[in-house]
Amino acid sequence: MASTEEEFSLKEVLIHFKSCLLDDDKDVLLEHYLNGWKGLVRFMNSLGSIFSFVSKDAVSKIQIMENYLKGESGERYRSLQSMIEYELSGNLVDLTQRSGHPDSGCRTLLRLHRALRWLQLFLEKLRISSEDSKTSTLCSEAYNDSLANYHPWIIRKTASVAFLALPVRNKFFEVMNVGTPEEVVDMLGEALPYVSKVYDFTEEQYSQHNLLNLP
Ligand code: 1PW
User: Fold this and answer.
1) Is the pLDDT of residue 105 over 90?
2) Among the atoms of ligand 1, which is closest to the Cα of residue 47?
3) Contact, 110 vs 214, CB < 8 A?
4) What's the CATH code, domain 11-205?
């Protein structure tokens, strides 16, 4: 697996989301989920410093999760299901307002999960876009249909300004470092179903445990 800057490719990032699916898609391995996110952060950073406000928050949330994974209860944070079970049974989640456990794994991962929906919608729009489509429009449509619903006005405003700085479609495809535009479209068609599976499974677990609105 490539890890140097030059070899960085969005394909490898998306492959992490494939490898985090466990047991016939019945659980999600958090280590790979976070590796996928680390790749997304590198991708966002390669789009320019204007995206650093976006990636900074993701970085701090990845860090919180990695600390749990490395901590003394690390084994309980191996997968999504084991984390939910561990935190809920130990009363380690603030359910109505942030107080004793302001940075629980469940609420932290929920923020990444919501952001993953944005990414999924955006990349799917790019996949089916025509050559003259505007990436900034695709990105803000995806954002407005997902993450924006959880953000206050000031963040929505900052995000919409940042989107305007996105490179045009072909340049954007180059930054992905996958190959020709046709190869990018093929890669997205192959990889996005895994991102969807991870997203859908996580959504289902959070819904079953009534955790979709954690403060
Ligand atoms: C072009 C590639 C697109 C990838 C998009 C994924 C990154 C999404 C990160 C958005 C962060 C915006 C600024 C931070 C906002 C936080 O307040 C918010 N975090 C998220 C991830 O929505 C909520 O976290 P909080 O304040 O409840 O701890």
Assistant:
1) yes
2) 1
3) yes
4) 1.10.3520.10
